[in-house]
C-alpha cells in the first residue's frame, strides 16, 4: 500500500513538472501563432538554445565558485561525471549559490532566446504563411546538428550532466521542484495574458487578422512581428533551461521536433489558438493522457503494437475531429474589448450626434 501511494505521488509530481514545462513552451507558441499569426514550426530552436545554456554555463560558474581542481577543467566533457559529483556535493549545503546560478543561467537563456528569436525573425520579414513555416521548420534543426557534431558545447551525442541547483532541498527535491516549475508556468501565463490584453496584444491580433489594414493605419508590421518572435523565443528558451535543470542533463538528441515543436502545436490547436485558457486545457489534456498511458501501460498489453504509440493515435484522431467539428479549438478565442460597451456606445452616440 505504501509503495502504491509512493508511485502515485511520483506520478503526480512528474505530471505537474512536465505540464509546467510544456505550458511555458505552449504559451510562447500561442503568443506567436495565436496573437501574431506567425506559424513558428521552429519552436525547438529557442527551446534547445535555453537547454544548451544550462549545458555550458552553470558547470563553469560552479567550478569557479567552488574552486574545483583545474586539472579536471582541462576537459570538462571528459571529466563531466567527476566534476558534477564535486559540484553537487557543495550545492547540497549552499542554497544561495544554487539559486544564484539558477537565476544567472535563466537570464542568459532568455538573452540567447532573444538572439535566436531575432535570427528567426529575419525570414519572417520577407516570407508569409507556408513559406515562413517551412523556413522556421528547417531552422529548428540547426542547433540539433550543431550540438551533436561539436562536443565541446554540450558533449555531442552522449550529452552532459549539469549541476543540480536544487540539491540543497534534499529529500524534498522532486516535490518542491515540481511546485517551483508550476510557479514559473503561472508567472508566464500572467505575463502573456497581460501582453495579450495590452495595446501590443491587440495590435498583434490586428496584424494577424488583416496585415494590410493594420499597415494602412500606421502600424509597423515588420517591427511588431520581430517583437513577437523575440518575446516568444525568450519565453520558450527559459522553458528549455528549466527542463534541463529539472532533468539535470542536456543531450541534443532529447530536443527533437516531435517533442518540442509538433506536440506543442497539437496541444495549442486542440485547446484553442489565440486563447491562453485553451492552451492550458490542451496541455493538461495531452500531458495527463500521456502519463496515464505510460503509468497503466500493462493494461494495454493486448494491443498488437507498442503502447507508446497509442497516445499519438488518440491525439491524432482528436486533432482531426477538432479540425472537422470545432476548428477554433475546445475553447474559442474571445474578442477583446478596448472599452466597456456602455462607454463605447456613449462615444459613438456623441460622435453621431455631433455630425
Can you walk through the features of this model?
This protein has 355 residues and is an all-alpha fold. The chain has a domain at 11-255. Helix content is 73%, strand content 1%. The chain contains 15 helices and two strands. It has helices spanning 2-35, 43-66, 80-91, 95-126, 129-139, 142-149, 151-154, 173-196, 199-209, 211-216, 221-247, 257-271, 276-295, 310-325, 341-354, and strands spanning 160-161, 249-250. A two-stranded antiparallel ribbon has the order 1-2.
Briefly characterize the structure.
The chain has 355 residues and is mainly alpha-helical. Helix content is 73%, strand content 1%. It is built from 15 helices and two strands.
Mean pLDDT: 86
Which percent range fits the helix content?
over 70%
Uncertain residue ranges: none
Give Rg in angstroms: 23 Å
Number of helices: 15
Beta percentage is under 5%
Features:
2 strands, 355 residues, 73% helix, single chain, 15 helices, mainly alpha
What's the helix and strand layout?
Elements: H1 2-35, H2 43-66, H3 80-91, H4 95-126, H5 129-139, H6 142-149, H7 151-154, E1 160-161, H8 173-196, H9 199-209, H10 211-216, H11 221-247, E2 249-250, H12 257-271, H13 276-295, H14 310-325, H15 341-354
Antiparallel strand pairs: 1-2
Helix pairs in contact: 1-8, 1-11, 1-12, 1-13, 2-3, 2-4, 2-6, 2-11, 4-5, 4-11, 9-11, 12-13
